[in-house]
């Protein structure tokens, strides 16, 4: 009897080239919907699988490992962040977990800079005024924003993406760099960076960009007390995970004008309901989690994701292991 092909549950259609490579090696069930599988569909879909290709919208926890069964070898997340996966449970069961670092660093850093500029120069609200027919004349004091050149940038979490954002803004706009991190960082091109506490960073920075993983320690890290430390002229940008900010506190802070504005590529939950107060605030720009959304980046993520799966199925070390 020929050996059966390994079974994979793929929770969404990802860029096809690499998926085809996977389909040649494995029996893949690809969730056909545009929206993620429901919890029940996820639990049913993984049953009997050797591998799972998951997205950040899929909660991969003990119940999913249990539903998959003891033959499950590998979970490959189509993302660098793995806060949707219970890594301890995966380790306990001997299931390898992979992610897609590096390839999305530039695309995500570009979106952080775009949000920073857009929030600082009020691009969304001023652009909306044109579409709504409210543009009457050139106004000496209309739509005033803030400059970037020579200002202070605070990076919370100077990892790959945080450093890429810093390089753009220090190199391009001559910004002074502060960062908060668990350890000292020596990064080429960013030698003048000064490590400070998070509270100092919030109090001293004109622009704050969040690049920390979402963990139990960082959930709600930017809360009401910390928001109140920010300058009334400051701009807050988040391209990491929505849960790092206490959103109710952010609504109140933005209403009160401290910080001046925010640019968010991530929220909690995602999607954020259209009637959520953050969506309607004129000093808040929200994007639908598009940090890694370029053709080349999503393709590169798919390549790593499939490599991780194939290695895991073969019992070999993953290309990008995160456990
Ligand atoms: C990630 O990879 O973690 C992003 O948030 C989605 O690309």
Q: Which terms would index this structure?
A:
323 residues; 12 strands; binds (2R)-2,3-dihydroxypropanoic acid; alpha/beta; 7-stranded parallel sheet; Rossmann fold
What's this model, at a glance?
With 323 residues, this protein is α/β, with parallel strands linked by helices.
Task: Tell me what the structure shows.
This protein has 323 residues and is an alpha/beta fold. The chain folds into two domains: 7-101 and 296-313, 3-Layer(aba) Sandwich (Rossmann fold), CATH 3.40.50.720; 105-286, Rossmann fold (3-Layer(aba) Sandwich). It is 35% helix and 14% strand. It has twelve helices and twelve strands. The strands form two sheets. Strands 8-7-6-9-10-11-12 form a seven-stranded parallel beta sheet, with helices on both faces. The protein has a five-stranded parallel beta sheet with strand order 2-1-3-4-5, with helices on both faces. Strand 11 (261-264), helix 11 and strand 12 (284-286) form a beta-alpha-beta unit. The chain is globular. The structure holds (2R)-2,3-dihydroxypropanoic acid. (2R)-2,3-dihydroxypropanoic acid binds at residues 56, 79-81, 104, 291-292.
- How many angstroms separate the termini? 35 Å
CATH homologous superfamily grouping of the largest domain: NAD(P)-binding Rossmann-like Domain
Question: Fraction of residues in helices?
Answer: 25-40%
Cross-sheet strand order for the largest sheet: 8-7-6-9-10-11-12
Mean pLDDT: 97
**How many individual helices?**
12
């Amino acid at each position: 009897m020929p050996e059966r092909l390994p079974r994979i549950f793929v929770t969404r259609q990802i860029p096809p080239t690499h998926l085809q490579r996977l389909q040649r090696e494995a029996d893949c069930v690809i969730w056909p919907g545009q929206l993620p599988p429901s919890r029940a569909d996820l639990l049913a879909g993984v049953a009997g699988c050797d591998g799972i290709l998951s997205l950040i919208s899929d909660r991969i926890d003990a119940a999913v490992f249990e539903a998959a069964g003891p033959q499950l070898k590998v979970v490959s997340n189509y993302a660098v962040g793995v806060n949707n996966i219970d890594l301890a449970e995966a380790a306990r069961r001997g299931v390898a977990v992979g992610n897609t670092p590096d390839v999305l660093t530039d695309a995500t850093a570009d979106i952080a800079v775009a949000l920073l500029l857009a929030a600082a120069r009020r691009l969304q609200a001023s652009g909306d005024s044109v579409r709504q027919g409210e543009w009457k004349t050139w106004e000496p004091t209309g739509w005033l924003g803030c400059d970037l050149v020579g200002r202070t940038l605070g990076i919370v979490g100077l990892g790959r993406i945080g450093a890429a954002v810093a390089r753009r803004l220090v190199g391009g706009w001559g910004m002074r760099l502060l960062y908060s991190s668990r350890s000292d960082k020596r990064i080429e091109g960013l030698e003048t960076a000064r490590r400070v506490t998070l509270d100092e960073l919030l109090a001293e920075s004109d622009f704050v960009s969040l690049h920390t993983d979402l963990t139990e320690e960082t959930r709600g890290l930017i809360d009401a007390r910390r928001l109140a430390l920010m300058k009334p002229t400051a701009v807050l940008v988040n391209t990491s995970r929505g849960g790092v900010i206490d959103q109710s506190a952010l609504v109140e802070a933005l209403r009160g004008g401290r910080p001046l504005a925010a640019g968010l590529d991530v929220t909690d939950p995602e999607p954020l309901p259209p009637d959520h107060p953050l969506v309607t605030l004129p000093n808040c720009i929200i994007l639908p989690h598009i940090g890694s959304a370029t053709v080349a980046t999503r393709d590169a993520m798919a390549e790593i994701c499939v490599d991780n799966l194939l290695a895991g199925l073969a019992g070999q070390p993953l290309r990008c292991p995160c456990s």
